[in-house]
Design a protein that fits this description.
single chain, Shikimate/glucono_kinase, 15 strands, 2 domains, CS domain-containing protein, alpha/beta, eight-stranded mixed β-sheet, Immunoglobulin-like, Rossmann fold
Length: 372
């Protein structure tokens, strides 16, 4: 059966005019971040929801461009020599904080040179300047965050993969959820894009026990398998630059709230399958899961919801993961360093309120373990 191509874009839920068109599988990514040490552990904070469903850039001409990052600002140069442009009045440059559309105005329909939503990061749209230099249109954007290096003008799989190293700072990524297969497929795409090491706790367990996971479950039961995976997670928790696919379902460690001690060593992504038909429903579904507190996956740093699944879309899901993680880290740039500190102190289960050296988990009954 042929698989139709999935076209991707990210539409901020804060936009007032959202046009929703459904593609299957659809991807919704929801970013949450840990409460500060002074906050109640029961609190959960959310950044805007994103959905992925159409082309992130839709040039309607053969225009090519050059992009450069100049620290406080970025520059875009588009070749316009082959177009009938007589003055700057023939060009429309429409910018918002996270989007860009450049068009040539002509009788009838305008020609779109470049259109992208979102940009790699936010800009100061009111400070955008542009001019014509011989056969090029030059557009300068002021960045909201001058410390963030832009690999490209748009947020795409390529730019996210190239730009994530500066944000992750070597911190590993753990994928959790009900499907071992989905975790493995997406982990491989993420690892390939980031240049990280792909690891699968299923494969590590099968190599160690010299039997299949199904055989282990039949012989030992879910509790023993969860304990074994927890031991595997402990052994790899000090690894940097790894993408770890965990076991899906309740027979895995991530499906049990008291087994998250070593998962907190990296950034955790919950790959959650959903029947939601739009982003509002996907958001409400996640909020309900967090409020109920019955699903241990809500301990994850970010949530990516999938409507349907086909391995052909694994890279699209990986892109949603990186986009959500980027949003998370930009909301608190100290998070990678805090993860590193948590690992250096021995992954004692005190995430997100990391205690000073010498803290004894048993002194507090370890009541915080498994909560987020």
């Amino acid at each position: 059966m042929a698989v139709a191509p999935l076209r991707l874009c990210y539409l901020l839920s804060t936009h007032t005019n959202l046009n929703f068109s459904l593609f299957k599988p659809n991807v919704f990514s929801l970013t949450s971040f840990s409460p500060s040490p002074s906050s109640s552990l029961s609190q959960k904070h959310y950044l805007p929801l994103h959905s992925c469903r159409c082309s992130s850039i839709a040039p309607m001409s053969t225009t090519t461009y050059e992009f450069s990052d100049g620290s406080a600002e970025v520059e875009l140069r588009l070749k316009i020599g082959g177009l009938d442009i007589r003055s700057s009045r023939d060009i429309s440059v429409d910018t918002k904080d996270t989007s860009l559309a450049i068009r040539v105005l002509q009788p009838g329909a305008p020609i779109t040179l470049i259109e992208t939503n979102p940009l790699f990061d936010r800009i100061k749209s009111s400070e955008t300047i542009w001019y014509i230099d011989d056969d090029e249109l030059v557009v300068n954007f002021k960045k909201q965050d001058p410390d963030l290096k832009w690999p490209d003008i748009m947020e795409s799989w390529e730019s996210l993969a190239a730009g994530s190293s500066q944000l992750l700072q070597g911190t590993s990524i753990y994928l959790v959820g009900d499907s071992t297969e989905i975790n493995q497929k997406v982990a491989l795409e993420l690892a390939t894009g980031l240049g990280y090491t792909p690891l699968s706790t299923k494969e590590l367990l099968e190599t160690y026990t010299k039997q299949t996971l199904d055989s282990c479950l039949l012989a030992e039961g879910s509790d023993s398998v969860a304990e074994a995976e927890s031991a595997v997670l402990e052994s790899i928790s000090s690894h940097a630059r790894a993408v770890v696919a965990t076991l899906g379902g309740q027979h895995g460690a991530s499906g049990r709230a008291n087994k998250w001690q070593h998962l907190y060593a990296g950034f955790t992504v919950w790959l959650s399958q959903t029947d939601a038909l739009d982003e509002d429903s996907a958001r409400q579904e996640t909020h309900k899961s967090v409020k109920d507190g019955t699903i241990s996956y809500t301990n994850a740093d970010v949530v990516v919801k999938l409507q349907g699944w086909d391995p052909a879309y694994a890279k699209s899901v990986a892109q949603a993961c990186l986009s959500a993680l980027k949003q998370l880290i930009l909301s608190d740039k100290k998070l990678p360093g805090k993860k590193s500190l948590y690992v250096r102190l021995g992954c004692r289960g005190d995430w997100p309120n990391v205690k000073p050296p010498g803290w004894d988990p048993s002194s507090e009954g370890n009541t915080s373990l498994g909560t987020h």
